[in-house]
Amino acid sequence: MMNSLQSFSKLFGRSNGVILGMVHVQALPGTPRHCLSMPDIIKKACQEAAGYQSAGVDGIMLENMHDIPYLHSHAMGPEVTAAMTAIASQVRRICPTIPCGMQVLTAQKEALAVAMATGLDFIRAEGFVFSHIGDEGLINSCAGELLRYRRNISAKNIKIFTDIKKKHSSHAITADVSIEETAEAAEFFGSDGVIVTGTATGQPAKVEDLQDVQGAVNIPVLIGSGVNTDNVDRYLGASALIVGSHFKHGGQWLNDVDFGKVDDFMTKVNTFRQSGNSVSR
pTM of the entire structure? Predict the structure, then answer.
């Protein structure tokens, strides 16, 4: 049986420096900013996914980022899960081989259900261990329920990458728990990989946090915010780099993807890879 690091490497074809491009799905039906028809939302997501694939990223992740303000899963209507399933299904159809993931804010079971139904490979989950205060209010640990749900729907093949000390959140209630201890708890509770972020979308993670977490666990460690062409060399030792804001026009997550920036970024990443400067753990 493969461990988490081996399984990660098998999925992405490399053990470190994996580049994941973000598709920020347009606002869905029922949300305050919704304005596009479902066919138009699907078309835009598919165009971005295909563009990322052509640019040579290693994986793609879909997220309902435009559904501001976000809801707890118990208050979220079924239309969001249905819409994300429709979108993911079409993205998977045009990108059948590249690893694809899903995040539904802040609905972990729903993300897992969408991934299972559409043949995706992983999800991003927040609040996996310990509690924190997010924009949506109190977010509690979901590891126990989520892993049991994954087993119940026979979705063990879908990896769950989990945020620790998540961005856009207050962690005062766990101020006596270090990021290393949080990572160790996530590993103990069955996370397939932990995600280290900065304080907000587009803000770089501390390199020291990455190094400390890598030294504390034996599962993949991903970077979840703030990576750009200027600092990418600092993070290529991480298992994966989730890139969203930097790939957008003006470096703002809500704008369209600038595929010229994606090409420049991947050119730099590939130069490092060819020179051997992307070191393995």
Answer: 0.95
